[in-house]
Amino acid sequence: MTREEIISGLKFTVDMFLFDPFTGETFTEPRNDMDKTTIDACRGAIELLEQAPCKETVTEFADRCRECGAKYDKLLRQKSMRGHCRDCKYFEYDSVAKVDGIPLIVAHEICKKWGDGCKTREDGYCFLFEPKESEE
To answer: What angle do CA 67, 37, 26 make, to 5 degrees?
Structure first.
């Protein structure tokens, strides 16, 4: 893969994080901290790749990448709470809707947040996880 192909792929990734596939809307700014972190990382990589090659050895570059990757992974873990779908406030075992005025179960094991009611599994994991409200 060439430097230009990598830059093109990173720019495409940034564009995808600024695009809402459900509404077709394109944003100028990231919509949340996770998107901002990813976009900033891609833009930083683009900037580095667009610079003239330096005298850094492959080993030095790899070490620097591992260090940056570790920081990025740590940031993602801090920013995102992950958990099982069954413990998320958006998960429904049985989704009820009125059909011709009659309440019916229309879907099982869905996520109300992702994909406008996308099928999921109770033991699934998700970065959109939000714990259920306590019932006290």
So the answer is: 145
Transcribe 108-127 into DSSP letters.
EEEESSSTTTEE--TT-EET
Q: Which amino acid is it at 44?
A: G
Q: Which residue has the tokens 């959109």?
A: 128
Is the pTM value of this prediction over 0.85?
no
pLDDT tens-digit map of 50-78: 886 666 666 676 677 677 667 666 665 65
Cβ neighbours around 28 below 10 Å, total: 5
Three-state secondary-structure class, residue 30: coil
Average pLDDT over residues 88-92: 87
Q: Alpha helices, DSSP H only, in 51-130?
A: 58-79
For the purposes of burial, counting CB atoms within 10 Å of the CB of 128, is it exposed (0-12), middle (13-18) or buried (19 or more)?
Answer: middle
110, with CB counted inside 10 A (0-12, 13-18, 19+), is buried
Inter-axis angle of helices 3-17 and 33-50, nearest 10: 160
Q: Which residues contact 73 (CB under 8 A, 6 or more apart)?
A: none
